[in-house]
Amino acid sequence: MSLRITFITAGRILRQLLNDHRTVGLILAVPALIIALISAIMDDAPQVFDKTGLILLAAFPFMLMFMITSITLLRERTGGTLERLMTTPTGKLDLVVGYALAFGTAAAAQTAVAAGVAFLWLGLDTAGPTWAVFLICIVTSLFGMALGLFVSAFATTEFQAIQFMPVFVVPQLFLCGLIWPADQMAGWLQGVSDALPLTYAVKALAEVQAHTEVTSDMWADLAVVLGAVVVATVLGAATLRRRTD
Questions:
Q1: What's the confidence (pLDDT) of residue 165?
Q2: Who's near 14: CB < 8 A, 6+ residues apart?
Q3: Of 236, 169, 217, nearest to 197 (Cα)?
Q4: 244 lies in some domain
Q5: Given a cut of 90, is residue 149 above it in pLDDT?
Q6: Looking at the predicted structure, is the pLDDT value of residue 46 above 50?
Q7: pLDDT at site 33
Q8: Cα–Cα nearest to 138, from 190, 201, 196
Q9: Average pLDDT over residues 76-83
Q10: Segment among 16-20, 54-58, 97-101, 237-241 with least mean pLDDT
Q11: Is residue 35 part of a domain?
Q12: Pfam families of this UniProt entry (predicted)?
């Protein structure tokens, strides 16, 4: 892997994102506004907001990075950019790590804005350190990025890329514990929930919320999400071919 090529790739993707002002607004402003809206809805139940708002800090980067990555990669595949890059000394690892750096930076900015609004303005409270929340959110966003990279190989239009969200994203949002505690679901749904990486991100956040220090359970749950990132990244890298369809 060439660090120079990797950083060039990351810089190119970041410039594309910055030039699209609607995407910048989607990444930075929308999550914070929605969390503020939910805080107002749950105004009389601050403890419920503490749990829901914390999960949303990870759910938004996961969802948006999936959407943005799948569309960005689809444009590069169908526009011939990816094919041209694959005929140069640029390797698959250079591309994948470059994408991860670019979208990880975008996710970090999004998490910083949303967390700043939630913790400093809306009164979101956790027993554990804020940096642990930030770390979990970034890892979760990388999982969304890796899934988007993989899914982009199976779509021919941006609309088709969005259509994959009900398959790969929505079930994880429903079953991770955001809407209803996983341990109170039907038995077979609990089994499905236990197989979904986003569930472990929520479990890791719950550890941060309940304990003043980071726990071994938090690290174990985060390791599961990291493992999912690696698997999805490998699958996504395998779809990077020298010839586009």
A1: 87
A2: 102, 105, 106
A3: 169
A4: no
A5: no
A6: yes
A7: 92
A8: 201
A9: 69
A10: 237-241
A11: yes
A12: ABC2_membrane
Identify the pLDDT of residue 244: 43
Please give the mean pLDDT across all residues of the chain: 86
Residues in the chain: 245
**Residue 245 domain-assigned (yes or no):** no
- State how many domains the chain has: 1
Residue 183 domain flag: yes
Domain span including residue 162: 3-238
Here the tokens at position 92 are 């698959």
